[in-house]
Amino acid sequence: MRLADYQSHLPGDLATLLKINISWQHYYPACSTSPWQLDGVVHALKEDGYSDLIPAHNGTVVVDPVEGALKNKHEAVEQKHGLESVFLDFPPAKWVDFKPKAKMIALDDIYPEGFQVPELFFGKNIIHLPTMKTHVFTTITGAMKNAFGGLLNRKRHWTHSVIHETLVDLLSIQKEIHPGIFAVTDGTFVGDGPGPRAMRWHVKNVILAGADQVAVDAVSAKMMGFDPMSIKFIRLAHEMGLGAGEMQDIEIVGEDISDIDWKMGGAENTFASKGQKLIYWGPLKPIDNLLLSSHIAQSYLVGSHLNHTT
C-alpha cells in the first residue's frame, strides 16, 4: 500500500470503507477477501492515522453475507480491531436514488426507472479487497467487479448480459461519490477455472495494490496469463479514460512481473453458467427479460445455492 503511495489517494480526514469481497459463504482459497488481507490493510491504515474504518459487506442471490463474514473470519478480524461493520442488504443501511453525471453505457437501459446506491457511500473513501481469480462471465474478477455487489441491489443479475459495460459504469459512479478509491488484491492463493467459486487454487503469494482500478485489474490479468486489453471491461475503461489498461502505461513497483505468466484458463463453465450464458448471449437472448423473471432463471440460482451450500 505504501509502495503505491496510498495516502496520497485517500484523504486521511475522511471515513474509509473497506469493501469486502464475498463469493461464497464458506471459506475457500482465492474465493473471497481473506482474513489476513483485511487484517493487514486495517493494520496499515491504523498505523498511518486512519481511524474511521467501516467494513462493508453485501450478499448475493446465492450467498448469505452474515454467514460469509463469520465463516471467512472477517467478523473475527473486525472484532480484533474494534470495527463496526455494515451489511448493505439490511437496515439500517439505506439505499437512495442516484443519477450519475457521467453518461452510462449500460445501466440506464437496465434500470430505465433509475437505480439506487447505498447512502453510506457518499463522501467516503473506499478500499476494495478482491482476490485474484478467474470468472465465468468476465474472464477475471478483481477491483472493478468488487464494486458490483456494493453499488447495485439484488436486481443486479439482470446486468449480466452487459456485465462489462456495467463494470465501467460502476467505476464512473465511484469516481463521482468517493473522494478516494484504492484496491488491495490478494494473490496469496489464485483461483483458476470456472470462478468465482468452482476453482482450482494455486499458491502464488503476491499482493497487488493501487489507486487505478483499471491498472490493478490489468496487472492481475497479465500475471494470470491474459492480454488485459482483450478483456472487454478493461479495454472499455481504458478507452474511456477511466484508468490504464495497457501494460506500458502502468508503473509497477516492488517486483518485476515482466516474465510472469501463470497460463490460467478463462473459458470454463459450470452447469449454471452454461444455462445463464444461453440467456444472456445465446439463442435465448430475445426472451431474456421473460426468462430472468421466470422460474427457469430461479432454478439455476437455487441449483447453484444447493450445490455450494450442501
Structure characterization notes:
The structure is a single chain. It contains 11 helices and 10 strands. With 310 residues, the chain is of the alpha/beta class. It has 2 domains: 263 residues, Rossmann fold; 41 residues. The strands form 2 sheets. Strands 1, 2, 3, 6, 7, 8, 9 and 10 form an 8-stranded mixed beta sheet that branches. Strands 4-5 form a two-stranded antiparallel ribbon. Strand 9 and strand 10 form a beta hairpin. Helix 9 runs antiparallel to helix 11. It is globular and about 45 Å long. The chain starts with 15 loop residues before the first strand and ends with a helix.
Structural class by SSE content: alpha/beta
The count of strands amounts to 10
CATH architectural arrangement of the largest domain: 3-Layer(aba) Sandwich
**Domains (count):** 2
The rounded distance between the terminal residues' Cα atoms is 38 Å
**Sequence stretches where pLDDT stays below 50 over 5 or more residues:** 302-308
Gross geometry? globular
Share of residues in strands:
15-25%
Gyration radius, rounded:
18 Å
Number of helices: 11
Reported by name, the CATH topology of the largest domain is Rossmann fold
| Helical fraction | 25-40%
Largest sheet: 8 strands, mixed
CATH class of the largest domain: Alpha Beta
- In sequence order, what are the helices and strands, one letter per element? EHEHHEEHEEEEHHEEHHHHH
Mean pLDDT: 90
